[in-house]
Every structure is written in structure tokens, then in C-alpha cells.
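User: I would dearly like some help making sense of a protein record. I have put the entry right below:
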Amino acid sequence: MTDAINWQKSSFSGAGDNQSCIELAPVDGSIKMRESDDPDIVVTTSVAKLRAFVLGVKAGEFDHLM
């Protein structure tokens, strides 16, 4: 199932197989997410929930986790 999806990762992830990252793909009005080093586990969320999360990241709400 996940092979037919056009996954996109951040350009900040780097190149090559040793660069683990989160990949995203729009599918039927939702957003699918997976880790590049464990692609069989896929999480689905809504565009609105992802937008709220990204806005929180940009605002620094998760900086304490890094």
C-alpha cells in the first residue's frame, strides 16, 4: 500500500539511506506520516491537525523537546 504513495521528506533530512526522517504524503484529503527507517508503520491525520502542529513547531512550543 505505501509504495504507491508519493512520500515527501524535508530537504533538511539530508541524502542517503542513513538519514532517518519523517515522510509525509497527501492521500484522499488526509495526511499520511511515516518514519523513513520504519516505513511499514503509517499514521494518518487531518490537514487541520497537521497545520496546528506545524504552527506550534514554528512558534517554538516544542523547543524543550530538542
Summary: Helices lie at 47-58.
